Each structure stands twice: as structure tokens, then as C-alpha cells.
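To: structure desk
From: M.T.
Subject: fold request, one chain
Message: Could you run this one when you get a chance? Sequence is below, nothing fancy, just the single chain.
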Amino acid sequence: MDELRSFALSALRVAEPGARCTAVRALASVGGAIDTKIVLAEPPGVPGRPVRPQLVAPGALAQRAVGKAEGRAALLHALAHIEFNAIDLAWDCIQRFRELPDDYYDDWVGVARDEATHFLLLRARLRDLGADYGDLPAHNGLWEMAEKTAGNLLERMALVPRFLEARGLDVAPGMIDRLERAGDEASAAIVRRILAEEVAHVAAGSRWFRYLCELRGLDADAEHLGDLADRFVLVLEGK
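Reply: Done. C-alpha cells follow.
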């Protein structure tokens, strides 16, 4: 039986989007005890990346109105790229961080499964609109944040699920409204489903953030922990 954390690390090298989603299903079926003590040696090529999309600076991405099909496709492409990267973030939470309760690993297996489902829904809708994932450029901001928090799980929980994903919850209702006003109920329904399921991902991040704070004798509501988000966003934006 494959060991979960080792499987997650090998899955991180999978580049092709369809194969990556297949690997998520395989990851969810991995059984047996989780070896939380081993230190995994990270090989080159993590994470795997498909040839497309081209990765550019966030400021190089064009803003397009959703009133036209190409504008809606651009919005869905950006969301698909977020979900594609979110699979990696969930896998990385499994393989990188050691000596945590089994429930922690179960949570991130579930998150990876949800993110793969979201990606597939968005990709199918993109194809309905005559496009596909990889047709447009995208940025690498989510994985860059994973790299910046690779040495500290408390920071990872604070800055990825509790900040970046929570920020996504804030903007999703506006996306849904714009898609509905454009008459694209099919796309709006997908974003509505993603919004509902991402709430649980933010909750998982908060649960393990508070667990780590308690373990380290920190006040989870202390101002200096909240300020972590502002500090890392400034670094991410090059300011």
C-alpha cells in the first residue's frame, strides 16, 4: 500500500491537467497508516507544470469584461488556474508537514479532491465557450506563496486558506452577479458551487491554524498574527 505523504509528493510532479485530476482520485483511495515522521526528499520538477499556460507577472494579465464570451472565458480560465494550483497546495500540505494528527491529512485530501472537481467543471465550461485551459496566460502567485511559507505551517495556514482563499470568498459573489447579468447562468452556477465548497477549505485552514497556535502557546487572535497576511502580500507583489 502506498504511503499517503510519499504519494502526494510524487503526484506533485504530474504536469498534464487530466492526469493530475486522475492522481487526485488515486490519492483519495490511498489507505494504510500515514507515516508522519519521515522527512521526504523533494526531487526536481516540483510542482509539475504543463507547457501551457504561459506564466507571466500578475500585472501583465489583461482585464476583460464578462459581457462577451471571450471575457467570460478569461474569467473562467483565471479561476481554473487557481483551482489547478490549489491541488498542488493541498498536496504540498500533505507531503511537506510532519507529525500532525491524521485528521489534518484527511482534511487536505478532501481539499485536493474538491479542487480537482472545481478545475474539471471550469475546464468543461471553458470548452463550451470554445476555449480551453492553457489558452491564456496566467500567473504563479499561489505557488509562490506556498514557497514563501514552506518552512512554517502556521504561516501557511494563515496566508493561504485563511487569507488568499478567504479573499476568494469575498470576491466570488461579485463574479456570480456579473455572470448572471451577462446571462451566463451555467458559469454562475459553477462559481456558486465553488464558493459553497471553498468555505470548508477556509474553515480547515482556520482549524489547523488555531491548533498550531494552541500548541505553541500563541493567541490565535493576536494582531501580529493577522499582520502576517499584509506582510506576505506586499512581498508577493514586489513592494
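Reply (cont.): The domain at 58-236 is CATH 1.20.1260.10 (Ferritin). Let me know if you need anything else for the meeting.
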